[in-house]
Amino acid sequence: MIEIGKYNDLKILRQTSVGLYLGDGTEDVLLPNKYCPEKFEIDDVLSVFVYLDYAERKIATNITPKINLHEFALLQVSAVTEFGAFMDWGLEKELLVPFKEQNMRLEEGRWYIVYLDLDTQTDRLYATNKIEKRLQNDVLTVAEKDEVDLVIYQKTDMGYTVIVNHQHKGLVFENEIFRELRVGDKLKGYIRNIREDNKLDISLSPIGYERAVDEHCDIVFKKLAANQGFMNVTDKTSPEEIYLHFGMSKKAFKKAIGSLYKDRVIEITPDGIKLISN
């Protein structure tokens, strides 16, 4: 069955004047001419996104939407009508947030975190910004040290609330943030700790000293190589300047150069650090 709101790998069945008909053996769907590849053969398999067009028919496209079914994303409201708010999600037909799915009245031009869902009775995709209803931590699908997908949800006094794997809610504490974060950012994170109440503490760096140091060492090495083997950074360099150059905390930087020095990769001088020529 061809799934709405997702990518489907479909076989080219036939070419018509309006486009290519694709199928999975159970049904077929039109890929309009404007989305067809320049070169193709019958029986080729294409990966396409499927949704309903203005006539409520399944339609395929090769345009990448800004959100997929059962996922969260930051989208902008393009218009507010008597039916609800319409959001720009990158496709020709805009995405509706019905009034009943709005925590507060959405305003034209503003950006909101929304969740893409499917009305199984009508096969219509819709968005909702009743985010809390779509998140649960009662049954976790993650374990400590797992790498996870994050969506930055909201700023709090303690740090940033994040959406974990489009299923759970977690927290990145303020003192562990060494980069600029914005609501809606999508990035990788790691499960630092699972508390007794199933609350998730999230790290933006890999868990474990060795893995983190290896990655930070690689960053420092490449920066040195790109700067003719020398950079004027020392123990007295401010954390802000270190972050500006290397994108890491001063603590992580000191661990990285300590490891590189031990391995005889760099030399530490009063003026900075430099690569040792082999």
**Quick one: biggest sheet?**
5 strands, antiparallel
Rg over CA atoms, rounded to whole Å, is 24 Å
State the helicity in percent bands. Answer: 10-25%
β-strand amount:
35-45%
Structural class: mainly beta
Total number of β-strand segments? Answer: 18
Number of domains: 4
CATH H-level homologous superfamily name of the largest domain: Winged helix-like DNA-binding domain superfamily/Winged helix DNA-binding domain
End-to-end distance:
60 Å
| Cross-sheet strand order for the largest sheet | 3-2-1-4-5
Count of runs of 4 or more consecutive helical residues: 3
Instruction: Assign the CATH architecture of the largest domain.
Output: Orthogonal Bundle
Average predicted confidence as pLDDT = 92
Any idea of the CATH class of the largest domain? Mainly Alpha
Description:
With 278 residues, this protein is mostly beta strands. It is 14% helix and 39% strand. The protein folds into 4 domains: 7-61, OB fold (Dihydrolipoamide Acetyltransferase, E2P); 72-132, OB fold (Dihydrolipoamide Acetyltransferase, E2P); 147-203, Nucleic acid-binding proteins (OB fold (Dihydrolipoamide Acetyltransferase, E2P), Beta Barrel), CATH 2.40.50; 209-275, Arc Repressor Mutant, subunit A (Orthogonal Bundle), CATH 1.10.10.10. The protein contains 3 helices and 18 strands. The strands form 4 sheets. A 5-stranded antiparallel beta sheet has the order 3-2-1-4-5, with no helix packed on it. Helix 1 packs across helix 3 (250-262). The protein starts with 6 loop residues before the first strand and ends with a strand.
